[in-house]
Structure formats: C-alpha cells, structure tokens
C-alpha cells in the first residue's frame, strides 16, 4: 500500500487538522475541518459513547454536510470543545444557512481521560477554549502521539495517543484516518512490543518489528491499569476525496471499524465508546459505484488500524503518567 506524502489524513485534499492541549490537566482536543463543508456520517459500536450532533449524520436527516468534526478528551465535559469550534466557525462566517442566520454544524465525540494522572481541579471547563485553539491551529501538518485529543489517552498496557495514516488507491482516490486511541484493550500482543496491527504496517511507520511469533494469542494478559473500566474509548475519523453520498459514508464508517478490531484486542467493549466518523470531500453528484466503495471501505479499515498503532508508537512520556509509553518498553 502506498501512503500519501504526509501519511496523514490531510493527504486527502482540502482537509486540515488542528490540535490543542493542556499538559497539566493531561487532556486536549483535535479538530478536523476544511475550507468547504463536507459530507459525513458515523457508526457507533462501543457500549459507552459520548457524542454531539451525530443523529443528523444519518442518511435520512436533513443536513447534507458539516463544517468540522471534533475529537476531544474530557468525557462529557469535552463536548464543550464543539461549542468552541462552533463559535470559531461563526466568527469566520461559516455555517448552515437558516434564514438570515448561519449555524455551523460540528459533530463530535469524546473519550474518558479524567483518571490519568493529570491535575483535574479546574473550576471552569477548559474545553471550549481548547476547541477554539485547535480550530485556529488547523492546517495540513500536525503532530501525533501525546497531542490534541490523544494527550491524556491510555491503552491497556501503554499510553495511548493521536494517530493518523493515509493510502493512495489505484483508482487515484486518497483515503486517510485520524484517531484518538484510548482503549481498554491492548494494542500489542501480550508480553511483546509487537503491534496487533503489524500485518498492515507500511515500512517502519510504527517501529517495523513485524508480526509476533508468540504462539498463544488468545489471552490478554494482566492489565496494569487499575482504573481500566473508567478510562476508555477510541474515537476516529476516516476520510476520502472520492465522491460519496451520506449513505455511502455510513457504509465506509461501518467497514472502518474492522481496522479498530484488528489493532485493539478486545475492541468494541461495553466500556468503550468506540465510534468512527466517515467523510467525503468529493462532489457526490456522481457517486462512486459499489465496487469502488468496497475498495474505499477496505482501505479505510487498514488506515485506521495503522493510525491506532502510530498513535501509541508516537506517545511521549510526561510527569505523573500512569503507564509507560511504548518506546519505554524493551
């Protein structure tokens, strides 16, 4: 599989991503946007999601496109990040026209990072300001690992993080993934540094260790995280410049969840709010056929698996961490 120039979701033409975080609180926000509204849908498979504006992404709902998508830490408090992005878009004159007004459409999802060693004694929610700052920082290049929504993320054995990956398809379309990986499950084979996503690695994008030769892959091994059931959820966005309808975006979101299951064991648990947004920047006046849709969905799943591993691979240590980074294990 050939990656885009950056190996980021922003290899999809027109997309921009911005991060903002507070390292003392150990939390942050990531915003994906574009100069023009884009088609989007969503599919939720985790048992404990936290979302805003996701109902309108169903194919039968009125609004055809959105202005930004927000991934944030903070559990329910983090939904305020969407309000900050909404305000920034309003300031820029963006939004769905309703009479004389414009209403920015900003779906979002949150992960739980309230028990991660960060200082949580704030008296006013920081997330609206983080959302505005992330929107203002949006551009084609952005950092991975302990950044944005991945700042305070944890997995079963390691710190989590923000990951991204891309693929160039033979059709000429581009597919990308962006993820804040904070799962209850493990991203590596127990007792090793080998990522579950290793079969899909391109080059050495997350260490190049290859597939584990461990024979017993059925067990999870003990979790060193005593608060496992409180710190969870992997939230992701997959994107393409292929012209997709809203219904086709929903189908790509469904397919992309396969990538989550390939990279995290177990995934989609009752305690995770696992969710994938899927979006298209193409003009869907002439949408792709089902054969092309199959290729795009498959590529989205592979990109998401790779992005999850890259998020954990790029995580960096910080004061009061509860778990080590992947790079600290050897």
Protein model, in words:
This protein has a single domain (9-318), classed as 4-Layer Sandwich (L-amino peptidase D-ALA esterase/amidase). β5 and β6 (101-103) form a beta hairpin. It is 19% helix and 22% strand. It is globular, with a radius of gyration of 18 Å. The protein has 330 residues and is an alpha+beta fold. The model has no long low-confidence stretch (mean pLDDT 93). Strands 1, 2, 3, 4, 7, 8, 9, 10 and 11 form a 9-stranded mixed beta sheet that branches.
Question: Helices, strands, pairings?
Answer:
Blueprint: E1 15-22, E2 27-44, E3 51-52, E4 66-72, H1 80-91, E5 96-98, E6 101-103, E7 108-110, H2 127-136, E8 161-168, E9 174-181, E10 235-240, H3 246-263, E11 275-280, H4 290-313
Parallel strand pairs: 4-7, 10-11
Antiparallel strand pairs: 1-2, 2-4, 2-11, 3-7, 5-6, 8-9, 9-10
Helix pairs in contact: 1-2, 3-4
In percent, how much strand structure appears in the residues?
Answer: 15-25%
CATH level-1 class: Alpha Beta
Counting H and I runs of at least 4 residues, what is the number of helices? 4
In terms of structural class, how would the helical and strand content be classed? alpha+beta
CATH-level-4 superfamily name: L-amino peptidase D-ALA esterase/amidase
Radius of gyration: 18 Å
| Structural shape | globular
Mean pLDDT: 93
Helix content: 10-25%
- Write the CATH fold name: L-amino peptidase D-ALA esterase/amidase
What does the largest sheet look like? Answer: 9 strands, mixed
Order of helices and strands: EEEEHEEEHEEEHEH
The total number of structural domains is 1
CATH architectural arrangement: 4-Layer Sandwich
For the termini, the CA-CA separation is 29 Å
Low-confidence stretches: none
Q: In total, how many beta strands? A: 11
């Amino acid at each position: 599989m050939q990656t885009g120039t950056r190996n980021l979701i922003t290899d999809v033409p027109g997309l921009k991503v911005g991060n903002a975080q507070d390292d003392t609180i150990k939390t942050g926000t990531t915003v994906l946007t574009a100069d023009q509204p884009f088609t989007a849908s969503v599919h939720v498979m985790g048992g404990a999601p936290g979302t805003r504006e996701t109902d309108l992404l169903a194919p039968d709902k009125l609004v055809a496109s959105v202005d930004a998508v927000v991934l944030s830490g903070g559990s329910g408090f983090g939904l305020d990040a969407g309000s900050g992005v909404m305000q920034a878009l309003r300031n820029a004159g963006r939004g769905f026209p309703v009479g004389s007004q414009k209403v920015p459409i900003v779906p979002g999802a949150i992960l739980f990072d309230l028990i991660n060693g960060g200082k949580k004694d704030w008296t006013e929610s920081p997330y609206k300001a983080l959302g505005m700052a992330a929107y203002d920082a949006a551009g084609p290049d952005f950092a991975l690992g302990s950044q944005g929504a991945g700042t305070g993320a944890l997995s079963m054995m390691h710190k989590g993080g923000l990951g991204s990956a891309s693929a160039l398809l033979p059709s000429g379309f581009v597919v990308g993934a962006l993820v804040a990986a904070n799962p209850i499950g493990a991203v590596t084979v127990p007792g090793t540094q080998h990522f579950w996503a290793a079969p899909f690695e391109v080059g050495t994008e997350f260490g190049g260790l290859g597939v584990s030769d461990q024979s017993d892959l059925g067990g999870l091994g003990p979790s060193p995280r005593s608060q496992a059931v409180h710190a969870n959820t992997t939230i992701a966005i997959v994107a393409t410049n292929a012209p997709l309808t809203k219904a086709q975006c929903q189908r790509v979101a469904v397919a992309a969840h396969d990538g989550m299951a390939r990279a995290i064991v177990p995934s989609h648990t009752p305690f995770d709010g696992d969710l994938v947004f899927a979006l298209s920047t193409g003009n869907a006046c002439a949408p792709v056929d089902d054969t092309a849709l199959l290729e795009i969905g498959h590529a989205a799943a592979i990109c998401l698996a790779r992005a999850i591993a890259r998020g954990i691979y790029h995580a960096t240590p910080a004061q009061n961490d509860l778990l080590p980074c992947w790079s600290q294990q050897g």
